[in-house]
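Record pair follows.
FIRST:
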Amino acid sequence: MWFEILPGAAIITVLLSVPIYATYGVQKLTLGNAFRRNMDERFSRVMYQRDFRLTDNPYVMNGLDAIPDEKKD
């Protein structure tokens, strides 16, 4: 009958959804943050590098206070 496919469909659905939800924990362990930044475009990569250079943590919100003042001679 048609309902005999339901256990197999449920198993496949669960197994296909495990990687989606497992990335949260894996990134939390490896990166210290559960979310990654999108690096598809060049502007996003430049902003990631800028934030990493300024604060050593690209996941912290950076404002003007994160940019060091210039030294006056």
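SECOND:
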Amino acid sequence: MEVHTDIRVLDNEEKVTTELCSLVEYIANTAIEADDIFKIGLSGGSIPALLAKGLSQVKTDWSKWRLFFCDERVVPFESTESTFGVYKTFLIGNVPLTEDQFIKIDPHLTAEEAAKDYIQKMAVYFPPDCLPRFHLLLLGMGPDGHTCSLFPGHRLLEETSVWIAPITNSPKPPASRITLTFPVINNAEACIFVAMGSSKAETIKIIVTKNKKQQQKT
């Protein structure tokens, strides 16, 4: 599968919001035209606030959107740690999305049970005999370089047997979570990584340098 990398450096949050939402609009409408549905994976961090500011300007058939979570904390939806809870606050009522369009975890289960349950929920939208192929994953990055709940040095980096994996010893609280695994992330039609702030600058520099070296080899 051919991989195309496009790195965009923007001056401020307003430009990031505009660029991000423009890309989401294009990918969403392309997916809807081709597949009559748009399947997007969401992350937390700075992304919900950016989408809350910009998605209201997007022109799309909102009824065709299905919103999944790249990772989620196994906490009540009312908790400030719940990624769905944050999106519910920021997006529902701000754009024409309903709660039913979000594919949510069952917060009453253990992480292991929640991961298995989420795979079953995903299987409604993806063929069960092959890797899910999202139209778009919106991904963040921590200062340590982690994305989703895949942390440096953690055994889940090597997980290839399941779509969704549980984690009960997350280095970043809360400890109990579920996360997409790398095979699913790498199979997406498009991934947009959003990274803002000086705390991530050094890690981004390392990633960009490694990416350039890899491109030179190929």
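COMMENT: The mean pLDDT is 94.
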